[in-house]
Amino acid sequence: MIRRHLPFATVAVIALVAAPLLLEPFRLGLLAKYLCYAIVALGIGLAWGQGGMLTLGQGVFFGLGGYSMAMYLKLAEGGGLPDFMVWSGVEELPALWVPFANPVFALGMAVLGPVALALVLGTLVFRQRVRGAYFAILTQALAAAMVILLVGQQGLTGGTNGMTNFFELFGQDLAEDSTQRGLYLVVAGVLGVLYLATRQLVQSRYGRLLVAVRDGEDRVRFLGYDPALVKTVTFAASAGMAGLAGALFVPVVGIISPALLGVVPSLELVVAVAVGGRHALAGAVLGAVVMGYAKTALSEQFAGGWLYLQGALFILVMTLAPKGVVGLAGRLRRARTT
Amino acid sequence: MLELRDVHVVFDGFRALDGVDLTVPEGELRFLIGPNGAGKTTLIDVITGLTRPTAGSVRFGGHDLVGRKEHRIVRLGVGRTFQTSVVFEELTVVENLDLAASFRRPLWSLARRRRGVSEAVAEALARTGLEELAERSAGVLSHGQRQWLEIGMLLAQRPRLLLLDEPVAGMSGDERERTGELLTQIAADHTVIVVEHDMEFLRRHASTVTVLHEGKVLVEGSVEQVSADPRVQEVYLGRRSTDAVGNRP
Amino acid sequence: MRISRPILSGLLALALTACGSGAAPAADSDEIKVGLLHSLSGTMAISEVTVRDAELLAIEEINKAGGVLGKKLVPVVEDGASDWPTFAEKATKLIRQDKVATVFGGWTSASRKAMLPVFERYKALLWYPVQYEGLESSPYIFYTGATTNQQIIPGLDYLKEQGKKSLFLVGSDYVFPRTANKIIKAYAASNGMTILGEEYTPLGHTEYSTLVNKVMGAKPDAVFNTLNGDSNVAFFKQFKSAGGTAESMPVLSVSIAEEEVTGIGVDNVAGHPVAWNYYQTTDTPANTAFVKAYKAKYGAAKVTSDPMEAGYNAVYLWAEAVKKAGTTEVEAVRKAAPGIALERPEGLVTIDGDNQHMYKTARIGIIQPDGLIKQVWDSDRPIKPDPYLKGYPWAAGLAGQ
Amino acid sequence: MPAFLNQLPIGLSIGAVLLLIALGLTFTFGQMGVINMAHGEFIMAGAYTAFLLGDLLAALPVAFLVAGVMGLVLERAAIRHFYRRPLDTLLLTWGVSLVLQQLARDLFGAPNVQVPAPSWLAGGVGILPYNRLFIMGLAVAGVVAVWVYLTRTKLGRRTQAVVQNRQLAATSGIDTGRVDMLTFFIGSGLAGVAGVALTLIGPVGPALGTYYIVDAFLVVVAGGLGQLRGAVLAAIALGLLNSYAEFWSDASLAKVIVFAVVIAFLQVRPQGLFVLRSRVLT
């Protein structure tokens, strides 16, 4: 029992104790951002790694969560209309915005909104047995359509700019380093809890069923299960995680914009999961953190090179190590023991 | 128990089934034979909901099966195996069986971790003789073992009607022997339909046989009656003389 | 999870230490660090790289002339990657980690809006070099490009003088076009012009046949174009092949500079008017020197454009304010800046004390077959910046006042 | 002619563009099930070929070869190892597309380049300029060529045989590896041809491919896997839908409407307009 939890405990101590003590605030903020991405990656690991659903539209759910939170933050400032509505010529707070003044509603919507959308989409798509590549393409198109929709409704969403300029969260000044450190701890804690919960799910009967659906959806039907239901529920769970990650991301980073939920960021996270190792949840988390860091570090060194590197890394991982870093590590360990 | 009336299936103009009537009473072991393309597998597909008939009715235990989704038919108690066995290679043998045994549980209760081995799974393990391999991953099983696992999964479902599609195809002599014993055991307390090519196997285990030809039921009766029927001999002699029913040694 | 503890924790520790590394060394006493933050990758790199180049040129020239307060300027260049959150992140890095004296950066309104809270939070300075939609005046931003009354309104004045009575508005779907078009509609309402249509397309949109059909069907005297980037290429190609000409229906653009003309194809866009404050052909002694220096540094085939010149100016204006303040300390520089007036390539530029925008001369030019732009109209003198259009009675109903 | 009637030929011409960019995909995605995210970059390669040659007609065959060879290399070097992992191909080829985009940026510079339109394409008939008619003609020619290839040539029939049953085709003596190579070559080559045509109406720059890739896949998805007539009908239908949706609303909303209609359509026809029936249990 202790052995089983030791790796997790070690990482948890590093993340919750060592990091806030050792890192300067700017770097801690970056790490918090990567951990937000890691939450999304965890959901992708569940849906894709375990369930075989390659979702290229996870950014949409992330965005819904982020926008819900941003709407609350904008309204919490007080002082009338949000700034972007003023310069967009909106004179009265739109009805859609009114309930988001309530933090419970906003946070609830950040998770339930994505879950509901995923349930609807999943039901429509999986019932008709649209899967594999078709599903991937449809989620990608969803991301593209969502961006266009958000950009087009400038008075409601802030358009291309998105929303920025937030001052406080639950009465805490967001500019303060202590608030940011607190936020970091919240993000790390949420990630830890979700990781444990997802791991539990993966190791349960449901997890076995999910793998079975991934490897032989039609066969599962003849075991008396409805694969569409299994997939829809899993997809919704991953959407909920992405939504929560989006809600945490906004106060941490201080901005939400359509650029964060388009096709490219959605794909980048899938890449991260693939690099880390899609079949292991830890791989998904690791991939998101490492790729997030690599992007920051490398783009500081050479700008155009990042694209080459990302592309090349991708080609290499797919051809040489389809199970990612975790898979490689496992292979090395086996090679050593035999 | 199972009743098919005037079932038609047409694929792009090709009549795969052309007015099939079939009745299987409770507790019977029924063999389904016929040359390639006679419509045997299509018939199984129609019963289990994989293929929707163009016309006709399929009733099982008082329920109409036409238009029902596959998993709902399973839930009524109809289980099947496939010609090329499909087991979940990344799961262990016992996990495969457990999955098959758990479909009646509500979805939320599946989120709990499996503890131990349920009665249905233990029974399936014992019957198929896979106890030794219980914790091995299904990916390492031999062809014959996979077929047994598949039959085991079917048993773990505890269905009322079992449909086996060529259970001994590609098996060695020994394996056939064991599968035959397994089949006899199962047939003792289940209703079973077996699609089979293997004549030797048929002669040893069959009681009632239905012969399909070009999408129609040609003859139905005991093994002796069927093999004596001149029409059956003609159908088989025209195609595969070595397997032919009439070619008794 | 079947992953060994040493590997997992090792990797995480690696990530952590990596995050912590790269802290800046203490600033050398005879150097002043300044940040340059533009998109060097992604869709906006096309435009922003040239602005960075112009800023680097200015830094080099200032250093050659002895630097500022006897210290050399050292540029710290960061990539905004055409992604607004990245701009905010990199701005934070420049301020907090590199501890730069000031930042020159941004192009899109969205990138400026994303950086604004960062600069206000840390009380640091941003010099923003591109024309924009106005309705903003942050105490920590200096705006060296035009605001609406120095570009949009002169453009409309020009069309009115040309006798254009009806307009069709075409724009990309983001803040600048939408705000610009609100101003245009208010102007039209009080100046006897009619607006026959207002259409927006997503950024990167390339299928313009329907929109061109709408424009042709409406038969306006002129089109006011606020499309951005690649969309201009598709729009002008399809406008021309549908029979649109500069004579019958001029398209006045506010986002097409010398740089973009080659990509659109001179054939497709020659003869159409544009509105800016500066062209490569602008006839001032400072411009002759600027164009010569720029071509010498980056190649004879390179062209100069309005945002480049505004970025180039920004460095000089900041250096002047630092000299006047005697320090790079932000509040002192802000206090010293108002009233600073320099002869720049576009003519006299003065920093306005009220809103930290510049007095600038508006110029309308016509795109020439050689790809350069020839000035056909100007505002005679530098116009006082008025980001909230308080001095225009017809704009009273517009939001943000 | 009233403006809304004009939208009919405009819709057809949008459909022709969609068809042209999706035609290659009916090979690589439709026939082989490979999701090639670098398809857009093959289109870009075609457009840059036109830029380098400076002559539209000469560029058509050359672009076909250039993009085709790029596809061939990609298929041999990587994709052929992935036939059993279609989703991995998607991610792999996305990596390839990133590299190709950056490569274009480094080779040709980030700003757009200009491909002069030939003078004989100036002018037009009614609302449709000659360059649009040229694209429509090219799309029709492409469809006819593909149809003839698939149904009237030995190689094409082999391709179809491989699509319908790879194992059976292999056992009956068809070299499936060579068929795959050829299919990928043609599919990618068609992308190159589309790229040349697009220089007439759009920008030519490193981001060119990203503007068209999602639309192209939507056409194939709506049209049905491996179905030429499905792709043709879907392209025309989506073109008309786009044209009228944009006419009565705006360009942003039109894109959203098109997406919604495709989703709704898949509810009725989950496998697209036309499907190959198959008894294989997947």
Automatic annotation (TrEMBL), chain A:
<keyword id="KW-0472">Membrane</keyword>
<feature type="transmembrane region" description="Helical">
    <location>
        <begin position="6"/>
        <end position="23"/>
    </location>
</feature>
<keyword id="KW-0812">Transmembrane</keyword>
<keyword id="KW-1133">Transmembrane helix</keyword>
<feature type="transmembrane region" description="Helical">
    <location>
        <begin position="269"/>
        <end position="294"/>
    </location>
</feature>
<dbReference type="GO" id="GO:0015658">
    <property type="term" value="F:branched-chain amino acid transmembrane transporter activity"/>
</dbReference>
<dbReference type="GO" id="GO:0005886">
    <property type="term" value="C:plasma membrane"/>
</dbReference>
<feature type="transmembrane region" description="Helical">
    <location>
        <begin position="133"/>
        <end position="152"/>
    </location>
</feature>
<dbReference type="InterPro" id="IPR043428">
    <property type="entry name" value="LivM-like"/>
</dbReference>
<feature type="transmembrane region" description="Helical">
    <location>
        <begin position="104"/>
        <end position="126"/>
    </location>
</feature>
<dbReference type="InterPro" id="IPR017778">
    <property type="entry name" value="ABC_transptr_urea_perm_UrtC"/>
</dbReference>
<feature type="transmembrane region" description="Helical">
    <location>
        <begin position="241"/>
        <end position="263"/>
    </location>
</feature>
Automatic annotation (TrEMBL), chain B:
<dbReference type="InterPro" id="IPR051120">
    <property type="entry name" value="ABC_AA/LPS_Transport"/>
</dbReference>
<dbReference type="InterPro" id="IPR027417">
    <property type="entry name" value="P-loop_NTPase"/>
</dbReference>
<protein>
    <submittedName>
        <fullName>Urea transport system ATP-binding protein</fullName>
    </submittedName>
</protein>
<dbReference type="InterPro" id="IPR032823">
    <property type="entry name" value="BCA_ABC_TP_C"/>
</dbReference>
<dbReference type="Pfam" id="PF12399">
    <property type="entry name" value="BCA_ABC_TP_C"/>
</dbReference>
<dbReference type="GO" id="GO:0016887">
    <property type="term" value="F:ATP hydrolysis activity"/>
</dbReference>
<feature type="domain" description="ABC transporter">
    <location>
        <begin position="2"/>
        <end position="239"/>
    </location>
</feature>
<dbReference type="GO" id="GO:0005524">
    <property type="term" value="F:ATP binding"/>
</dbReference>
<dbReference type="InterPro" id="IPR003593">
    <property type="entry name" value="AAA+_ATPase"/>
</dbReference>
<keyword id="KW-0067">ATP-binding</keyword>
<dbReference type="InterPro" id="IPR003439">
    <property type="entry name" value="ABC_transporter-like_ATP-bd"/>
</dbReference>
<keyword id="KW-0813">Transport</keyword>
UniProtKB/TrEMBL annotation, chain C:
<protein>
    <submittedName>
        <fullName>Urea transport system substrate-binding protein</fullName>
    </submittedName>
</protein>
<dbReference type="InterPro" id="IPR017777">
    <property type="entry name" value="ABC_urea-bd_UrtA"/>
</dbReference>
<keyword id="KW-0732">Signal</keyword>
<feature type="signal peptide">
    <location>
        <begin position="1"/>
        <end position="26"/>
    </location>
</feature>
<dbReference type="GO" id="GO:0006865">
    <property type="term" value="P:amino acid transport"/>
</dbReference>
<dbReference type="Pfam" id="PF13433">
    <property type="entry name" value="Peripla_BP_5"/>
</dbReference>
<dbReference type="InterPro" id="IPR028082">
    <property type="entry name" value="Peripla_BP_I"/>
</dbReference>
<dbReference type="InterPro" id="IPR000709">
    <property type="entry name" value="Leu_Ile_Val-bd"/>
</dbReference>
From TrEMBL, chain D:
<dbReference type="GO" id="GO:0005886">
    <property type="term" value="C:plasma membrane"/>
</dbReference>
<feature type="transmembrane region" description="Helical">
    <location>
        <begin position="216"/>
        <end position="241"/>
    </location>
</feature>
<comment type="similarity">
    <text>Belongs to the binding-protein-dependent transport system permease family. LivHM subfamily.</text>
</comment>
<feature type="transmembrane region" description="Helical">
    <location>
        <begin position="12"/>
        <end position="35"/>
    </location>
</feature>
<dbReference type="GO" id="GO:0022857">
    <property type="term" value="F:transmembrane transporter activity"/>
</dbReference>
<keyword id="KW-0029">Amino-acid transport</keyword>
<dbReference type="InterPro" id="IPR052157">
    <property type="entry name" value="BCAA_transport_permease"/>
</dbReference>
<dbReference type="InterPro" id="IPR017779">
    <property type="entry name" value="ABC_UrtB_bac"/>
</dbReference>
<keyword id="KW-0812">Transmembrane</keyword>
<keyword id="KW-0813">Transport</keyword>
<dbReference type="GO" id="GO:0006865">
    <property type="term" value="P:amino acid transport"/>
</dbReference>
<protein>
    <submittedName>
        <fullName>Urea transport system permease protein</fullName>
    </submittedName>
</protein>
